[in-house]
Amino acid sequence: MSAPSPPVTPVPPPTSRAPRAHTLTGHLRAAGIFLVLTVLVTGFAYPAVVTEIAHVIDPGAAGGSLVYYPNGTLAGSSLVAQNTNAPYLFWERPSATDYNTTLGAPTPYGPSEPALQSVLNETILYMKEYGNFTVNGTLPFWFVAPSASSIDPDLVPDAVLIQIPRVANATNLSISYLLNFVNEHIVNPFIPYVGVPYVDVLDLDLALLPLIGR
Fold it and tell me: Which pTM was predicted?
């Protein structure tokens, strides 16, 4: 005869509810931690690492591509156009922001905007200086139209070569010498037929200053 089964002890009901797996507080805490980590990694750690690598690979570019006058004072960045109007220097593209790097590229002016007249006046000034349009004179488009950023320091070679007579007249340098000088500063595309040749006008002017004793 089998032994009787031991009596089953009843389990008392739980006195408290188990914590829920998903709570608003928990989600907010996790989101806050993720936000802080994202800011630290993408806003501080990653830029710091990339900057240090850039300083090793190309210190000049990592520091802002700064260029200096012959006397050692800072002239600016080779990536940013300068408001140059001295007759003995080569001029850069017109700027819709007056070469102000804090304004950003503006929306093109409409036909009824008063600001459009100032751009037209500047274009007419260039036309009068470099080509009499009443006798079929021509002027490179890049020299009368602002760039997308309004601070692009580069010009196509034609827009620089057309300035040689003015620069030669304001200096003691011959046209033939300046022609060779500009040709030496033409930068060709890294990959042939991808992009166009250009001249960094700021670098060109900085190389010109010692030649004219300034």
Answer: 0.62
